[in-house]
Design brief:
It contains 19 helices and 7 strands. It is mainly alpha-helical. The strands form 3 sheets. Strands 4-3-7 form a 3-stranded antiparallel sheet. It has a two-stranded antiparallel ribbon with strand order 1-2. It has a two-stranded antiparallel sheet with strand order 5-6. The radius of gyration is 24 Å and the shape is globular. The two termini are 26 Å apart.
């Protein structure tokens, strides 16, 4: 039974807008339609067509944009940040047993979802207020500030409902994954083909710069490590290599043989992937680091600039001006943000090592936490297999027997997977991959998940008898 904390949200849940779960089976084409609608609405909200009222579109918090699928100066200013942060907070509370919640019970899951939505709305209001009060949009009149606040709050509700629409079975996967993938794809396209001239090699996009360099007769060696953090050939090669490595890792798995008690002779396999909890640990770790970045910047900018104004604020993080942007220069935020490219790694080796270790440690912590919270632990999986009529050949058909076998693999694979995703995300950033290392890791994982979902849905629609096995 849900504890006192979650029960507090029971009366509030009636006032939170909600997308009802479908009461009928939604066809493949209909899911495809609603997924496309959600994606189009997100892209429109993140475009210049939906700019916030009365502000200039000047970039800030650039490292947060891909992770939170946000777009500066538009209705998607906050992106999925409040939703991810709310989920992160509640999952940590549940995982650490600070609040009571049995995720195997539908009532507790419903209260958990309601609490997540309420907390996401509260965080949307807090972040919108922080942006306005801290002067991120400059000096605003009272009317303009209220309009911007209401715009951001309404956009937060729309994003929450779009995510719920997809997660509750009207679409494929989750809205959060879909929006992150769209943001990363936009960023990669921009770094490949943006024609805006930026240096002696020509356009910002690497393919544009490469073509202009070849046509002008210059040597392309200067594009290998392009100065100024612009897209380089090294970054392009690293992006392709990162894609291939992650795709390979997605396919590495241990397969447990299974037999179906209801149909003698029918055999199957249960795959335990090396990346068992997928890219969720990276999302949570990134969300945590991004929030440290966000709040440390706001505190430092308003109360401790340039440095030494406040000891505690500087401990969290302080910044220096590089070009036309402030970048982390010390404090905790210095070690939870990537140096960005090979030149910076060589100049700041301690920061690079510190960032890599911290990222891997948090990926492991969130991997282990998600095992229980996400219903992926050995006991839960054993119950699902036995309830589906499956058993492991050579062992009696009981949850305990299956659980003991799963315990040999799942915890070890979870820790190893957490280390690997943290390592891939961190190292990819060091080589300047397009869309950031975390963005590439997330997008490949999400594309792979969508591929599996689409294949499963198509097979289940063609052969309805498989739907029970798939859990649909």
């Amino acid at each position: 039974m849900a504890g006192r904390f979650l029960n507090f949200f029971r009366p509030l849940a009636r006032f939170i807008p909600e997308v009802k779960a479908p009461e009928r089976r939604v066809s493949f084409n209909e899911k495809l339609f609603w997924t496309a609608i959600a994606l189009i609405i997100y892209l429109v909200m993140a475009s210049d067509a939906c700019r916030l009222y009365g502000i200039q579109r000047e970039e800030a918090f650039a490292p947060l944009r891909i992770i939170f699928a946000s777009s500066r100066g538009t209705l998607m200013e906050l992106g999925i940040g409040p939703i991810v942060t709310a989920g992160l907070i509640l999952q940590l509370l549940v995982g650490s047993a600070m609040i009571e919640c049995d995720m195997s019970k539908p009532e507790d899951r419903a209260l958990f979802t309601a609490a997540s939505k309420v907390l996401a709305l509260i965080l949307t209001g807090i972040q919108a207020s922080a942006y306005i009060i801290s002067g991120m949009y400059g000096q605003l009149s009272g009317t303009t500030a209220i309009i911007i606040f209401l715009q951001l709050l309404a956009a937060g509700v729309i994003v929450m409902l779009l995510d719920e629409l997809i997660q509750k079975g009207w679409g494929f996967g989750s809205g959060i994954s879909l929006f992150i993938m769209a943001g990363v794809a936009q960023q990669i396209f921009w770094e490949c083909f943006n024609p805006s001239p930026v240096d002696q090699y020509g356009g910002f996009g690497i393919f544009v710069a490469l073509a202009q360099t070849l046509m002008s007769g210059q040597s392309v060696t200067g594009l290998l490590l392009r100065p100024g953090n612009f897209p380089s050939l090294t970054g392009l090669i690293a992006t392709i290599a990162a894609f291939l490595v992650i795709i390979y890792m997605e396919g590495v798995r241990v397969e447990l043989p299974l037999s179906y008690a209801g149909y003698r002779g029918f055999r199957s396999r249960y795959p335990i992937k090396l990346l068992y909890v997928s890219n969720l640990p990276v999302i949570f770790a990134s969300a945590l680091f991004a929030n440290i970045y966000f709040f440390s910047y706001l505190l430092w900018y308003n109360w401790s600039r340039p440095q030494g104004g406040n000891f505690w604020t500087d401990l969290l993080g302080w910044y220096k001006l590089q070009g036309d942007q402030y970048v982390p220069a010390g404090g905790l935020v210095y070690y939870v943000t990537s140096p960005g490219n090979l030149s910076n790694v060589l100049n700041e080796p301690l920061r690079a090592v510190g960032y890599l270790i911290i990222l891997m440690v948090f990926c492991v912590i969130f991997s282990l936490t998600w095992l229980e919270v996400g219903g992926l632990g050995p006991s839960t999986v054993a119950k699902q297999l036995v309830d589906s009529g499956m058993q492991i050949p050579g062992y009696r058909r009981s949850e305990k027997a299956v659980e003991q076998i799963l315990k040999r693999y799942i915890p070890a694979v979870t820790v190893l997977g957490g280390i690997i995703v943290g390592l891939i995300a961190g190292l990819s950033d060091f080589f300047g991959v397009f869309g950031s290392g975390i963005g590439i890791l997330l997008s490949v994982g999400i594309i792979y998940q969508y591929y599996e979902i689409l294949v499963r849905e198509r097979v289940a629609e063609m052969y309805p008898a498989f739907r029970r096995i798939f859990g649909g």
